[in-house]
């Protein structure tokens, strides 16, 4: 079974609009709404989640704002598809957004609060929660490592247009490594018989 969980550290405080995540994705490559939704499922969604319905709704808003436009591409035996591209106004907005300082993202973790409740709650269930989280982080790290090996086999030879994506991927890998180390430390403290084997 494929385990899905929140990013190891869920943040609040940064109010990035979904529009900006879509602008970044379209700056990298023009796409249909379906293609964008798949990108969010496969990569962007690990850092900024959005449902397919939200993406289509926001694309309509961005089109009305003049940030994107679409080309209609006929398809045999299927409805025509809309391929969205960034307009100059969309590129200007992306430039303006990247020029603003990003607010500090403060940690907010339900799991951390649950650990604080350890003396008062179900310690066995909390340990099982840690085991589950550890498997998820291990799986996520393996996914990131596979992506790094596939798309960026030589990080020292990155092109300028690859640098941002690589740095985000690297940040994800470091976050997962940290989350794994934290899970291991918790298990060492709470279930040492497992880690001493």
UniProtKB/TrEMBL annotation:
Domain named Transcription regulator PadR C-terminal: residues: 107-190
One Pfam family, short name: Vir_act_alpha_C
InterPro entries: Tscrpt_reg_PadR_C (IPR018309), Tscrpt_reg_PadR_N (IPR005149), WH-like_DNA-bd_sf (IPR036388), WH_DNA-bd_sf (IPR036390)
Domain Transcription regulator PadR N-terminal: 22-95
Official protein name in the record: PadR family transcriptional regulator
């Amino acid at each position: 079974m494929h385990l899905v969980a929140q990013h190891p550290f869920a943040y609040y405080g940064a109010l990035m609009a979904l529009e900006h995540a879509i602008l970044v994705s379209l700056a990298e490559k023009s796409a249909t709404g379906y293609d964008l939704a798949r990108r969010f499922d496969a990569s962007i969604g690990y850092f900024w989640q959005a449902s397919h319905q939200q993406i289509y709704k926001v694309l309509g808003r961005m089109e009305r704002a003049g940030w994107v436009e679409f080309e209609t591409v006929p398809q045999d035996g299927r409805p025509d598809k809309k391929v969205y591209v960034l307009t100059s106004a969309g590129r200007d907005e992306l430039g303006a957004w990247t020029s603003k300082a990003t607010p500090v993202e403060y940690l907010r973790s339900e799991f951390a609060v649950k650990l604080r409740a350890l003396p008062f709650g179900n310690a066995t269930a909390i340990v099982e929660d840690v085991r589950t989280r550890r498997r998820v982080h291990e799986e996520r790290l393996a996914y990131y490592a596979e992506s790094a090996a596939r798309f960026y086999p030589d990080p020292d030879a990155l092109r300028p247009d690859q640098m941002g994506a690589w740095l985000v991927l690297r940040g994800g890998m470091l976050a997962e490594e940290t989350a794994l180390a934290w899970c291991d430390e918790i298990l060492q403290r709470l279930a040492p018989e497992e880690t001493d084997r």
